[in-house]
Amino acid sequence: MKLTGKIIIALIAGAVVGLLLNIFAPDAYNVLDPYLFTPLGRIFLNLISMLVVPIVFLSIILGAAGLGDPKKLGRIGLKTVSYFLITTTIAIVIGLSIASIAQPGKAGDFDTKNAEFTAEKAPPVGETLLNIIPKNPLEAMTQGNMLQIIAFALFIGLALTALGEKTKGLLNLVEQGNEVMMYLVGFVMKFAPYGTFGLLASAIGSQGLSAIKAMGVYMVCVLAALFIHGALTYGGTILLLAKKSPLWFFKNFAPAMSVAFSTSSSNATLPLSMEVAQNRLNVPKSVSSFVQPLGATINMDGTAIMQGVATVFIAQVYNVDLTMGELTTVVLTAVLASIGTAGVPGVGLIMLAMVLSSVGLPVEGVGLILGIDRILDMTRTAINISGDAACAVYVAETEKKRTIKAQRTGA
User: Fold this and answer.
1) If DSSP codes are grouped into helix, strand and coil, which group holds residue 1?
2) Cβ neighbours of residue 305 under 8 Å, at least 6 residues apart?
3) Measuring CA to CA, which residue among 187, 168, 211 is closest to residue 272?
4) What is the pTM of this model?
5) Closest by alpha carbon to 67, among 403, 406, 408, 404?
6) C-alpha to C-alpha distances, 133 to 9, 158, 160, 271, nearest whole angstrom
7) Which of 55, 113, 348, 400 is the one with CA 20 to 30 A from 266?
8) pLDDT tens by residue, 61-85
């Protein structure tokens, strides 16, 4: 059986086992979770997280060196960032629209008195942009600061291109290091079915039916918005911009989406999503190595959808009518926050707190959705990495057409 099938079976088995234990044998779950489910999930996460920093560092160097021309790198960077900002805007508009129609906040009685949430402050957008250049690259690597790692790797890649033959040996070493990392990804993925089983059993078992029932309409709204965004926005990107079949895209990218669903981490899934994009979606390493690590850091379409639905949901629970101007403020704040909070731990809830504050809604309302956020986080992570891959396919195809046109015209 192929790895994708094994992972899907493990996902279903983990969800079923976790749910059954929660309903019929909660004491057994309390015993199995710390000694079986959580260790299985944590071992898998640690194994794949171990590879993230070296893969991002080496792949970005190779991507920048492979692109060669700084103008080409700048052009691809502009396409990538523009794509992510546009799709983030589309995502939050979809979330706001569906929540406004379905009105999840009026589907039941919610306890707002006991809702609690302490919001951490995110750095200003300007400070985030200034901090992209690391003072200490080694510190950035030990802390896993992806934006700084990407910036440092870009400088090295450009330097290797400029120096040419003088640094050919070093470039070969980086290529060999990247090959070693990709081999380790394949090795670690053999453990993926066991890890995904543990992660799902732990997540579903800790939530149970009570939390799902209480927030059922809210969950359906978020899931529907995620599905629509994935099908229309990303499917449209592949069909209209890349001129390829959306079915081909989602079928071939399914292994990475399955792992993203279980890990709830774009960064943790990055090694596999890059491998799948390069080997199954035929994205050149130079493009994949630049677009996908950047997307894992700043592309937050799934989170934007959650913010849109959650903002309307919380407004309805607290009986606040949002005006069109306030809804526009929500869109602008969410898009800017996706840049300002890039690489910040707990980014989704920090961004939501910023959005709520921008329209005067109580930040404590975040406490209403915390119970089932872990389950929804799985789905929106799968959507996020799909957006990274769709962007990589789109950029690769446009660059290919540009090259062919230049060859025909003799430019």
Assistant:
1) coil
2) 91, 92, 94, 95, 222, 225, 226, 229, 380, 383
3) 187
4) 0.86
5) 403
6) 43, 15, 18, 23
7) 400
8) 988 887 767 788 888 989 998 999 9
